[in-house]
Write a structure and sequence with these properties.
2 copies of one chain form a homodimer.
Chain A lengths: L2 H8 L3 H10 L17 H15 L4 H13 L4 H34 L8
Chain A binds a DNA duplex (30 and 30 nucleotides) through helix 2.
Chain lengths: 118, 118
DNA sequence: ACTTGACTTGAAGTTAAGACAAGGTGATAC
DNA sequence: GTATCACCTTGTCTTAACTTCAAGTCAAGT
């Protein structure tokens, strides 16, 4: 699969895909003899996963670390799970935070005439 | 109230408070005769509100616009409500997105042994 | 009088996460 | 056989949202 197709498929620009690979967010993508990227299912799986995680705001740095651990093999499994659990926790916090703000905002809209103030 | 106290109270650095005022995220804070900021309840209210909104990721630019409208007086009320509704909507979207990712992440952790793949 | 510490302003620096540009290669289209 | 693509790499630029810096003022303590 060409980079243009992967770009299309996941809604990431080609630049972003190359960037992800460069910084180690995605394991090296296989090349054709002439050096052109040829994404296989494995690479696409990574793209899809990373895309999702990035979308939810997990920092590049953290994901780079995850990929790095992954590449060390099965001995890092616990570390990887630990990392994911951390992120899950911080995701939960963010969700709660957003929900609180959401509530406040909805209330403010609802009662906008009552105050003239923040 | 001094900037140091406001900083303490809301957990924003003094620099951030000055920055917020400079870019118009908060209406101008009153000064003592010697030029030192003297936050009153009105200013504090804004700080608190803006802090909360920023925390939830609403862009500075949008909030600046809101404050700007606010300062035009009551004729902009509808516009302000509209703006808030927009943000509420985008907040909802983000929350849903995060919840989906949260679910995926939780599942991945739960079944980590089943895959060796993303 | 002098240092200390909190404050002021305006400008320049930082960081994360890409976006963009320049220059180059190789396969296909005419 | 040359023009045009789609791709490559390397390196610089951009944007948001602060943060830090430089240079100075002012009030209080010793």
């Amino acid at each position: 699969m060409l980079i243009s197709e992967v770009s299309e498929k996941y809604g990431l620009t080609q630049d972003t895909l190359r960037y992800y690979e460069r910084v180690g967010l995605i394991p090296t993508v296989p090349r054709k003899p002439n050096g052109i990227r040829d994404y296989d299912d494995y690479s696409c799986g990574w793209v899809e996963f990373i895309h999702c995680m990035r979308n939810s705001g997990i920092p590049v740095e953290v994901l780079v670390e995850y990929v790095h651990l992954y590449q060390q093999g099965s001995k890092t499994k616990e570390a990887r799970i630990g990392l994911l659990k951390e992120e899950l926790k911080s995701l939960d916090e963010r969700i709660e935070n957003l929900q609180a703000t959401r509530k406040r905002l909805a209330y403010k809209i609802e009662h906008y005439n009552d105050f003239d103030k923040a």
